[in-house]
């Protein structure tokens, strides 16, 4: 177990926490920097420190964590109040020179064996990159029906507590039948902003989405997914097509782990999306029932299928530790909250504020340099604008007036299209970059030709559709054995189509077995990339895999 997870707990309203003996040793890469002290540096040393901060901010895509009073090997030495104050002043000057802001996340008391009180301090440095309006994270919300997912998002984004009868969720529903039934059946997006000091910016005080985007330096986009079993296809499409950075699994304290909860957790694990758990409705049941639900969750998460280190969040110190380690994929924080009383919601907000981007700067820069590839998830027809496509840009950049290719059509063709306008988070912009979601106006392009699952590619891309492909698959569950000619629904990114297993490299494949399989789509060709993650399902049958080889589609009618 990571030594940095052994956190002592005190009351949640205190920022000054008992100390750990040490932190993990400092690493060269990443956005975390250890400094023993920063007292009166020389001008040359100061310039070096500013350059170092610039590097850490770049690694964290606009966010860096500074541990003051900590040696490079992770040992907490601590500082006297006078030295700590001087070090923080130097850190503020460094941040000011780069146009960044600083926020003290927590202080730790360091037991040195002497009477003098020494402290170590953790500081968040935030600067929105020059080529971005804000730091952007996408978070998928999973869980069984009636777990309180939409209500929790309503409370977070609207800034008002629920009345216990679902009032907070009404603004999130997109259809009349959702309001009438109280169940989400479609994919909806909601935003929560944080300013440079970590203060929440949401729809309270009659703010619009545009105002939230203008004032926020960090934006969390929640992807609210359906919990009911009959909408599982929509939920899987939200996980594969919308490419979330993290997943929040909501579990009702009074009902426990029921319905689709395990299934949703398994999907997130199969797609390698880092997960954290929020136990809601703790105001409805006594502490013993909440404890029983959390204990059962811990047993599942620590089991062989997940193999996670669970961390119950009781105070700000726990929340900070969980946020900085979530990217490792090893730990799974567990929050217990109430959307009616607001109990421990502040800890969840603190956690979301510090949550780091999932891609480092090198990966992000590499994706941005590639040719554009935009996955189409939704299609609209807007009066006086024409056809509009919504989705996620996986790689490259797209600007207004760009000439792109859209496809593949039913006969595997790609057609030229021009981008007339771009919107992100309900406000107009001029450009979108890799890993960002948005909507693109493509003018009077015939909407009947467009469909979900298509892609927009750069004009110079050698676009090639495929009707069949090979994949290495792993069967998670099947009641008997799978043989050639088995039909299943295949999800690859924004592609969702029924396919036939034409051939398998063995006679049959059963639960917990691997195989090389050739799939063939039964309706129309799709655009796939080698290396893409794959998920297939049919009834209770489920499996995962990776696309290994594409068989280019040749239209016999040409």
Detailed description of the structure:
The chain is an alpha+beta fold and 558 residues long. The protein contains 11 helices and 29 strands. The strands form 5 sheets. The chain has an 8-stranded mixed beta sheet, sandwiched between helices. The protein has an 8-stranded antiparallel beta sheet with strand order 18-17-23-14-15-22-19-20. A hairpin with a 2-residue loop joins strand 25 (487-492) and strand 26 (495-504).
Features:
alpha+beta; eight-stranded antiparallel β-sheet
Low-confidence stretches: 1-15
Largest sheet: 8 strands, mixed
Strand content: 25-35%
Write out the strand line-up for the largest beta sheet, numbering strands in chain order: 8-7-9-6-10-11-13-12
Count the beta strands: 29
- What is the radius of gyration? 25 Å
Task: Summarize this entry quickly.
It contains eleven helices and 29 strands. The chain is an alpha+beta fold and 558 residues long. Helix 1 (43-59) packs across helix 2 and helix 9 runs parallel beside helix 10.
Strand-helix topology:
Layout: E1 16-18, E2 32-35, H1 43-59, E3 63-68, H2 81-98, E4 101-110, E5 118-126, E6 135-142, H3 149-158, H4 176-181, E7 188-194, E8 200-201, H5 209-215, E9 218-224, H6 232-241, E10 246-252, H7 261-270, E11 275-280, H8 287-302, E12 309-312, H9 316-325, E13 331-336, H10 345-354, H11 361-369, E14 373-382, E15 386-395, E16 397-399, E17 403-407, E18 415-418, E19 421-424, E20 427-429, E21 431-433, E22 436-441, E23 455-458, E24 466-477, E25 487-492, E26 495-504, E27 514-521, E28 533-538, E29 541-552
Helix pairs in contact: 1-2, 9-10
């Amino acid at each position: 177990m990571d030594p940095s997870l052994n956190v002592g707990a005190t009351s949640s309203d205190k920022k000054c926490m008992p100390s750990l003996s040490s932190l993990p040793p400092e690493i060269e890469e990443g956005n975390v920097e250890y400094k023993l002290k920063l007292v009166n540096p020389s001008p040359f040393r100061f310039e070096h420190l500013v350059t170092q901060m610039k590097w850490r901010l770049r690694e964290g895509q606009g966010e860096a964590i500074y541990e003051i009073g900590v040696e490079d090997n992770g040992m907490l030495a601590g500082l006297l109040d006078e030295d700590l104050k001087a070090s923080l002043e130097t850190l503020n000057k460094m941040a000011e020179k780069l146009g960044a802001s600083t926020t003290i996340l927590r202080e730790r008391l360091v037991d040195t064996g002497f009477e003098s009180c020494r402290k170590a301090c953790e500081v968040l440095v935030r600067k929105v990159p020059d080529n971005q309006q804000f730091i952007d994270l996408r978070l998928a919300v999973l869980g069984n029906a009636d777990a309180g997912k939409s209500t929790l998002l309503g409370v977070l984004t609207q800034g008002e507590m629920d009345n216990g009868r679902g009032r907070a969720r009404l603004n999130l529903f997109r259809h009349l039948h959702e309001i009438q039934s109280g169940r989400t059946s479609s994919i909806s997006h909601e935003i929560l902003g944080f300013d440079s000091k970590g203060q929440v910016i949401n729809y309270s005080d009659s703010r619009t989405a545009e105002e939230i985007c203008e004032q926020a330096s960090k934006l969390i986009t929640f992807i609210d997914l359906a919990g009911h079993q009959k909408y599982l296809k929509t939920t899987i499409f939200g996980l594969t097509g919308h490419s979330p950075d993290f997943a929040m699994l909501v579990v009702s304290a009074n009902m426990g782990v029921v319905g689709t909860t395990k299934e949703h957790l398994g999907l997130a694990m199969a797609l390698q999306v880092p997960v954290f758990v929020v136990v809601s409705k703790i105001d409805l049941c006594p502490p013993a029932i909440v404890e029983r639900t959390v204990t059962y969750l811990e047993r599942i998460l620590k089991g062989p299928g997940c193999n996670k280190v669970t961390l119950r969040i009781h105070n700000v110190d726990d929340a900070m530790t969980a946020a900085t380690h979530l990217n490792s994929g090893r730990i799974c924080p567990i929050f217990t909250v109430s959307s009616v009383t607001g109990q421990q919601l502040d800890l969840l907000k603190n956690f979301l504020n510090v949550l780091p981007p999932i891609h480092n700067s090198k990966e992000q820069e590499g994706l941005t340099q590639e040719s554009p590839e935009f996955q189409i998830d939704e299609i609209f027809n807007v009066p006086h604008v024409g056809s509009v496509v919504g989705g996620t840009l996986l790689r490259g950049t797209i600007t207004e007036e760009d000439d792109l290719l859209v496809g593949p059509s039913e006969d595997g063709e790609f057609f030229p299209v021009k981008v007339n306008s771009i919107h992100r988070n309900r406000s107009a912009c001029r450009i979108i970059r890799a890993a960002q979601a948005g909507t693109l106006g493509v003018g009077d392009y015939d909407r009947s030709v467009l469909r979900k699952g298509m892609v927009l590619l750069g004009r110079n891309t050698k676009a090639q559709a495929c009707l069949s492909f090979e994949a290495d698959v792993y069967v998670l569950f099947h009641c008997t054995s799978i043989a050639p000619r088995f039909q299943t629904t295949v999800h690859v990114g924004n592609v969702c189509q029924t396919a036939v297993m034409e051939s398998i490299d063995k006679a049959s494949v059963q639960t917990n077995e691997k195989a090389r399989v050739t799939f063939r789509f039964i309706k129309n060709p799709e655009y796939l990339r080698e290396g893409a993650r794959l998920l297939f399902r049919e009834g209770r049958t489920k499996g995962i895999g990776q696309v290994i080889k594409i068989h280019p589609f040749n239209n016999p009618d040409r």
